[in-house]
Amino acid sequence: MTANKKNKDLIIGAVIGSVLGAVTSLLLAPKSGRELRNDIAEGYQQVSEKTQRLAGDVAEKSKQIFSAVSETSQTTVGTIGKHTSEWASKAKEVAIHVGEEVKSWKKDKAAQRQDDIAAAEASVAATTAEREEA
């Protein structure tokens, strides 16, 4: 952005300098009134043409910059959207996987508890049977 401002300031300075230089040279030249008026009109015409040309160049350059920025922005937005979608999909897959792992872990723990309970009951039953036999 600073480069654009510098370019704009340079163009404005060039236009103002041209106008001031033309006016100064015309006013300080030793000519008759008619010649001076003709020179001023000619100088005005030249400055006007240069100003119009510069304005056209600035407008064209602005369009090019706008087009480039717009294209880059669209590309960036598309890339961000693509990556965001991919990351959301991966996060969803990971969440599903973690959920399944937790469910599996709970089932394993429940089955382990059932096995432990069955083993404890068998141990108690065996001990009770031994005492009854004794």
Strand portion: under 5%
Silhouette: rod-shaped
Largest sheet: none
Mean pLDDT: 82
State the helix count: 2
Distance between the termini: 99 Å
**Radius of gyration over C-alpha positions, nearest whole angstrom:** 44 Å
Detail the poorly predicted runs.
none
Instruction: Give me the count of strands.
Output: 0
Alpha-beta content class: mainly alpha
Helix content: over 70%
Give helix and strand order, one letter per element, not per position: HH
Structure description:
This protein has 134 residues and is mainly alpha-helical. 96% of the residues lie in helices and 0% in strands. It is built from 2 helices and no strands. The protein has helices spanning 2-28, 33-133.
Write the SSE topology.
Blueprint: H1 2-28, H2 33-133
Keywords:
0% strand, 134 residues
Write a brief caption for the model.
The chain has helices spanning 2-28, 33-133. With 134 residues, it is an all-alpha fold. Helix 1 runs antiparallel to helix 2.
